[in-house]
Amino acid sequence: MTRHVIVGAGQAGLQVVEALRRDGYDDELVLVGAETWLPYQRPPLSKKFLQGETTAERLLFRPQDFYVKQRVDTRLGVAASALDTAAHRLTLSDGSTVDYDGLVLTTGARVRRLTMPGADDERVCYLRGLDDAARLKARLESAERVVILGAGFIGLEVAAVARKAGRQVTVVEAQSRVLQRVVAPTVSSFFEALHRGHGVELRLDARLARLEPTPEALAVVLDDGSVLAADLLLVGIGVEPEVAVAEAAGIHCAGGIVVDEFARTSAPDVLAAGDCTCHRNLRYPAPHRIESVQNAVDQGKVAAATLLGKLDGYAAVPWFWSDQYDVKLHMVGLSGGHDSLITRGVPEAGAFSVFYRAGERVIAVDSINRPAEHMAARKLIAAGGRCDPDRLADTAVDLKTILDS
Amino acid sequence: MPKVTFITAGGDSRTLDIPAGWTLMEGAVQNDIREIAAECGGGCACATCHVFIDSSWVDKLGPCAAAEADLLECTAVPRAPNSRLSCQVRLTAALDGLVVHLPERQT
User: Fold this and answer.
1) How far is A31 from chain B (nearest CA, A)?
2) Range of A248's domain?
3) How many domains does chain B have?
4) A107: region left, alpha or beta (phi > 0 left; psi from -120 to 50 alpha)
5) ipTM of the predicted structure?
6) CA torsion angle for A196, A202, A204, A206 (degrees, to 10)?
7) Do A356 and A368 fall within a single domain?
8) For the segment A202-241, what is each residue's pLDDT rounded down to a tens digit?
9) Global pTM?
């Protein structure tokens, strides 16, 4: 009997499980997860869950029943502690060992934490998993003054939830515009206006200097000397891929567990997928790390195929979404290296798309409240991105016809 | 609790109790209906929770919002007039007995 072991019970891990069983793998499957929860969805943690519109049980991808019926040996609340790639043996934090034929590391990422004095104050919150979200939700209920460190997706989504709940919200961002890492200035401006329009105070080019906890408030002191009094400080300053066990096992890691387009690591019979990887995507010249549901799902499928001997090179088009207030942002492609932008529609009207081009090709598209354009853009980029730029900007042209141009 | 019957493309049928207030998608996923992928978890962002509402029930559902309509254009199995994204259909007592048909694939 073959035994495949998946380390990390998140979206990528579950995808590997589902794909293996669906494609006819009938032998042993072990799913190890450090959290005590069965695999669950993370996107709603900063949206519906935080707003009290859904419960933990409803966030599970599949109920307990599924794992029983699919004969998945789930080891929850247990982390991988050591990996012997020569002996094909995984050691878990409870001291047990599991021998494997194939191993897939889907360990995800962990939040970057503050380490300065005051960082362990109970008013400091993070948001990565369900336990974090439950804690944040509870704190939010009695917090009047919310300070958010980081204007990335987590920071902005939580800002929207907190503001809708009537809290006083201040977002502190070190860069000069929100979402600077990933979007064009036009899109940053749109979101800055959106949040300010809802009453969020945005402090850009501002850094946290120190924390001064007092019973009355957590004083958040910025580098310009100004002080924000907080009942809650949400820190959303990014994540680091969870590579410790892989690294200790001698597996090549560089900004993530390095994998090829078949999800293979440098160790035989060890694969990796999802947020923890720095991976090769055949569409792009260099490996990269992507934090998204789409990547977790699509890479998970690749890993499963590789385990079953079907080498199917990863070439999915990356896509992503974010919900803030009643605005839906959809993103497709990767905009790094673009040299021109085309805007379709009018940002002030609240719905538009921005096309990022590298030479003649569209390499990425951000769509705000334009889901049909996003879907057309996915097809466009999948097909190589070449099209007449005039048609992109012309709202009288149906974007669905763009591929024919 | 509303009962919903899911019928696969192959004709297999399952009837589930889904609490009012839950979406069709949540009910399907929580009851291990494998034909609903729901990759974005109900965020109306991926079009992989596509269902066909049985003709006897189509009129009893409210109209779908523009965002959902846009995404329905991108389903793996081409949409029909009775197509919906199951993450956008919320169960109510009035939908007790609802019948939906599942497409052959979602991706």
Assistant:
1) 18
2) 3-42+59-110+240-307
3) 1
4) alpha
5) 0.84
6) 170
7) yes
8) 999 999 999 999 999 999 999 999 999 999 999 999 999 9
9) 0.94
Q: In what order do the strands lie in the sheet with A80-84?
A: A80-84, A89-92, A97-99
In a domain, B106, yes or no: no
Dihedral pair phi/psi, residue A398, rounded to 5°? -70, 120
Contact yes or no for A10/A31 (Cβ under 8 A)? no
Residue A385 has pLDDT above 80, yes or no: yes
Closest-CA residue in chain A for B35?
A22
Q: For residues A388 and A405, is the Cβ–Cβ distance under 8 A?
A: yes
Residues of A in contact with B71 (CB under 8 A): 371-372, 375
* Model confidence pLDDT, tens digit, residues A280-330: 999 999 999 999 999 999 999 999 999 999 998 999 999 999 999 999 999
pLDDT of residue A255: 96
Which of B30, B40, B73 comes nearest A372 by C-beta? B73
Phi and psi torsions of A253, nearest 5°: -130, 140
Give me the mean pLDDT over the A109-137 stretch.
Answer: 97
Which of the residues B46, B72, B107 would you substitute to probe the A interface, choosing the one with the greatest number of A C-beta atoms within 10 Å? B46
pLDDT digits (tens, 9 = 90+) for B34-89: 899 888 888 888 899 999 999 999 999 988 888 898 889 889 999 999 999 999 99
Partner-chain contact A321 B32, CB within 8 Å: no
Give the range among A245-249, A338-342, A373-377 with minimum mean pLDDT.
A373-377
Residues of A in contact with B44 (CB under 8 A): 328, 371
Q: Domain end: A195, A220, A235, which one?
A: A235
Note whether A211 and A246 are same-domain residues.
no
Q: Does a structural domain hold residue A50?
A: no
Quote the CA–CA distance of A279 and A218 in Å, as a whole number: 40
Rounded to the nearest angstrom, the minimum Cα separation between A351 and chain B is 12
User: What is the distance of C-alpha A167 from the center of its chain?
Assistant: 26
> According to the model, what pLDDT value does residue A404 have?
55
Residue A88 pLDDT > 70, yes or no? yes
Examine the pLDDT at B19 and tell me if it is beyond 60: yes
Report the CATH number that the domain containing residue B76 is assigned in CATH: 3.10.20.30
Considering the domain architecture, whether residues A104 and A129 belong to the same structural domain is answered as no
CB contact under 8 A, B34 and A22: yes
Number of domains in chain A: 3
Domain stop point among A186, A212, A235? A235
| Segments forming the whole domain that contains residue B31 | 3-101
Which of A14, A55, A58, A331 to substitute to test the interface with B, most B CBs within 10 Å? A58
